[in-house]
From TrEMBL:
Keywords: Developmental protein, Differentiation, Flowering
Native organism taxonomy: Eukaryota, Viridiplantae, Streptophyta, Embryophyta, Tracheophyta
Alphabetical GO biological process terms: cell differentiation; flower development
The protein's name in its UniProt record: FRIGIDA-like protein
InterPro entries reported in the protein's UniProt record: Frigida
Gene (UniProt): LOC105156998
Span list, region Disordered: 1-23, 404-437
């Protein structure tokens, strides 16, 4: 028999079976936990990846800095070790130059030294060296500026001559001080007229100032001379306001100033905007693209090129484009074609201008010729023949040249001495160029005098028709007021013509001319 439950013992009912809702709640909770875990796991994985990338970047930067530091230290060691060698070379050259300068400056040295003849490159070099040995900057300046036609010869010989100076930078600054930064009170020359000489000397000074061992990495210029060069640059900048701003400064002055900055290495970062404006204003100069790069304007080149294009200076923009390697961004052929199109429009507008009717054709042809020559030079310089064949441009240039030559040919004498519409003779060809523009082609009518052997004159031949009173000789001949000849005076029974006969009167005196009067 089964045991009976104890009445004092508590009995619990069996738990109910789990419901479906509870199952769904548990499932949803597990899903949320799973998603949260995945999100946290992805977040930490991303953080780990970022940390790894930053760590790699830091390692790369550290390695680059380490390499740069090593290179800098090596360069410093090289420069330090080169100082003694460079100084020995410079001192040896300085000692040699000083001895030669002292010997030339000694009393009686000039009489013993023959003056070199400047008839070739060797004679020119000797003459330049004589000025440099004596440090005669003023005479040197006069000598150079008087020989602009020998520019290319100077360009090759000046660095050699300046190398024999005791202090080449000081010598050049003293030489160009006649016109730069401002013309001296004793100077009669315009600084713009002699800008070419200033630029030439400043360019020739660069190879002389470089370190004999390190080259352009170290310029041999003393702090005092560099300070003086900076003062000169500041003086020039202050004079801009007196000259009326950048727009009124002439290009040779701008070129000299920018070359002065590059030569002495005194480019200032705070003046970059000024340099940019000066370069754009004088962009047509051949050396401007290289100067712009040397002035630190490489990163501003795209904006400068766009500004030049907007100003209609597409050819200058092409030169700047190739200097900094932006030909892909600014294709040269469309720029050159646009330049030719603008030049053609300008020539057409000149022809249509009523104020230029006299020389309109000449001016229009000259402008188009200049544009074609500039484009042809660009095509040749940058090897663009495949993209822009120059044959049509050359033919057009030949046509313009031929038309110019044909226009200059003088008209034939027969065309000049045509008869008037009424059949009368025209004046000789040189009448318009003579002192008295109205010179008759016929002799003056003879004076009739009474002769005792004749009772009357023979019957007159038919008279020539009267010549028109006015002949057009342009503005070269003075106006002539035509007046009729007075009637002949009566002497006895014979008419007598007056002595002062008008130049172009009517020959109705009954006598035909026997010959043509010569003209001079």
């Amino acid at each position: 028999m089964g045991s009976l439950p104890d009445p004092g013992e508590l009995t619990h009912p069996p738990p109910p079976p789990p419901s479906f809702d509870e199952f769904q709640r548990q499932t949803s909770l597990m899903t949320s936990c799973t998603l949260l875990w995945k999100e946290l796991s992805d977040h930490f994985s991303s953080l780990e990846q970022d940390l790894i990338k930053k760590s790699d970047a830091l390692k790369a930067k550290f390695q680059a800095l380490n390499n740069e530091t090593q290179q800098s230290l090596q360069a410093l060691d090289t420069r330090e070790s080169s100082i003694s060698k460079s100084m020995s070379i410079v001192l040896e050259s300085l000692e040699k130059t000083t001895k030669m300068s002292i010997s030339l400056a000694a009393p009686g040295a000039e009489s013993q030294t023959e003056e070199p003849e400047v008839d070739d490159s060797e004679g020119l070099l000797m003459k330049l060296k004589s000025f440099c040995h004596k440090m005669a900057a003023k005479e040197f300046w006069v000598f150079v500026t008087a020989r602009k036609k020998e520019l290319e010869l100077f360009r090759s010989e000046l660095p050699k001559a300046l190398a024999d100076c005791v202090d080449p930078p000081r010598f050049v600054l003293e030489a160009i001080s006649e016109v730069f930064p401002l013309p001296s009170s004793n100077s009669t020359s315009n600084s713009s007229d002699l800008g070419w000489a200033c630029v030439l000397l400043l360019e020739s000074l660069i190879p002389v100032m470089v370190d004999p061992v390190l080259g352009k990495e170290r310029m041999l210029v003393t702090p005092s001379i560099k300070g003086r060069a900076e003062e000169i640059a500041e003086t020039w900048k202050k004079s801009l306001e007196e000259r009326g701003g950048i727009e009124n400064v002439k290009t040779p002055d701008v070129h000299t100033f920018l070359q002065h900055l590059v030569t002495f290495g005194i480019v200032k970062e705070e003046d970059v905007d000024l340099y940019r404006k000066l370069v754009v204003a004088s962009a047509w100069r051949k050396q401007m693209p290289k100067l712009a790069v040397s002035l630190g304007l490489g990163d501003k080149m795209p904006d400068m090129i766009e500004e030049l294009i907007g100003r209609g200076q597409q050819v200058d923009a092409v030169h700047f484009t190739y200097e900094v390697g932006l030909a892909d961004k600014f294709p040269p052929v469309p720029l050159l074609k646009a330049f030719l199109k603008d030049a053609k429009k300008a020539a057409t507008s000149i022809l249509e201008d009523p104020n230029n009717s006299g020389r309109a054709a000449h001016m229009a042809a000259k402008k188009e010729q200049s544009a074609i020559r500039a484009v042809l030079k660009c095509i040749e310089e940058y090897k663009l023949e495949a993209e822009f064949p120059p044959e049509n441009l050359k033919k057009r240039l030949e046509q313009l040249e031929k038309a110019k030559i044909e226009k200059k040919k003088p008209a034939s004498p027969a065309a000049k001495r045509t008869r008037a519409s009424n059949g009368g003779p025209m004046p000789p060809a040189k009448a318009g160029r003579s002192t008295n523009a109205y010179v008759s082609s016929f002799p003056s009518p003879p004076t009739y005098v009474r002769s005792p052997s004749h009772t009357q004159y023979p019957a007159p031949v038919p008279a020539y028709p009267a010549v028109p009173a006015v002949y057009g000789h342009g503005s070269r001949s003075p106006p002539y007021a035509y007046t009729e000849a007075p009637p002949p005076a009566i002497v006895g029974s014979y008419p007598v013509s007056p002595v002062n006969f008008p130049a172009y009167g009517g020959y109705n005196n009954g006598m035909a001319p026997a010959y043509q009067q010569p003209y001079y």
